[in-house]
Amino acid sequence: MDETPTFSVTEVCNGIGQMITTTFPDEFWVRGQVSGLSRPRSGHLYLDLVDADGDGGRTVPVLKVNLWAGRRATVDRQLADAGVELVDGVEVRIRGRLEFYPPQARVSFIMSAIDPAFTLGQLAENRDRILRALHAEGLLRAQERLTVPLVPLDVALVTSQGSAAEADFLHELGRSGHTFHVRPHPTLVQGTGSVAAVCRSLREAAASGCDVIALVRGGGSATDLQTFDAEDVARTIAGLEVVVWTGIGHEVDRSVADEVAHTAFKTPTACAAGLVETVDAFIAELADRWDGIAVRAGRHLDRAAHNLDHRSTMIGERAGRVLAHAGAGIDERRRRIGRDARTVLAHAEGDLRVAEARAVAADPVRALARGWSITHTADGRLVRSIGDAPPGTELATLLADGTVRSTVHADGA
Prior knowledge:
Elements (H helix, E strand, L loop, with lengths): L8 H15 L4 E11 L6 E6 L12 E5 L1 H14 L8 E11 L4 E9 L1 H21 L17 E6 L4 H11 L6 E6 L7 H13 L5 E6 L13 H9 L3 E6 L7 H5 L2 E3 L2 H94 L2 H6 L4 E4 L16 E6 L2 E6 L6
Parallel strand pairs: 3-5, 6-7, 6-8, 8-9, 9-10
Antiparallel strand pairs: 1-2, 1-4, 2-3, 4-5, 11-12, 12-13
Helix pairs in contact: 4-8, 5-6
């Protein structure tokens, strides 16, 4: 017969309870990462606690934690005083005791207190670790090499849709009077999945063709803002080829996202105001340059007008001298022309008298008067020999006192 002991379920459960009580007789502290946080209407609080450095590829131990409503007020006050809030993903150090619940064979950790300083320290330590890694890789200054467009009117807004941060940002842009074009890229800004969501929205915004990406959210506790301390978010910002401005409402400290971004502002409103100021500065510079151009153009025109007046005066004076000199030359030439004309006319008059005498001597009328005659054919050809007037030719003979017409009947040779 098998000598192995046999226990009832009750005995097993009682044994488990006794072992837990023996091993952990008093309250103790335990550290881990919050997961599966639940706040039912009963006022109790439930969460799972896992090792922060657990291997995500394997099954990891999980400790069920219960915070009863009666102790929750004390814990909430501790958290509020330190500016810490319980959210998924945050590392905590909590105090309590183990309790075994036989009806469900479940071991739970009954929480009684929390150490907010531990959480803040872990956040700071994690933040410093990320910053050191980014600095070593040259990513902290990656955005600084990017240039903000002169007129950043096309803005991609990455924030929680319908949030106060979104409203404040849009209001500040709207009251500027400038024609901003805002491309909304809504995203989770805290809680489970927020890191991946922010990274995705940033990449989508960068691909939209905007001038600047504005990553904003309202104020909150240190744990509320841990999404913006996430290494994945920082690396995404550093890897973008578009300028990223942040407006994360946290007055106490700068997030890792602030450190990596091109420019960081304290609030969403301040971030929007920075965009407005950039556009205002461009307009003011443009106006100044235009005024400078107008002043310089005025000076050039004044100098040109002065030079024109001076040259006009010089031209007038020179023209007067030239005209006076030309007038004197014209008078002298007029006198020369008068003398030369009279000489020419005298010579021409003598030549005319000689020509007249020659013309008179050669006048056919005078030859006709001396008994000469001139004979033409009917068509006007001059008859110089009998060969010019064959038989039948009609002739017209011009005499001193008239014309005799005749017809040649025979050759008289």
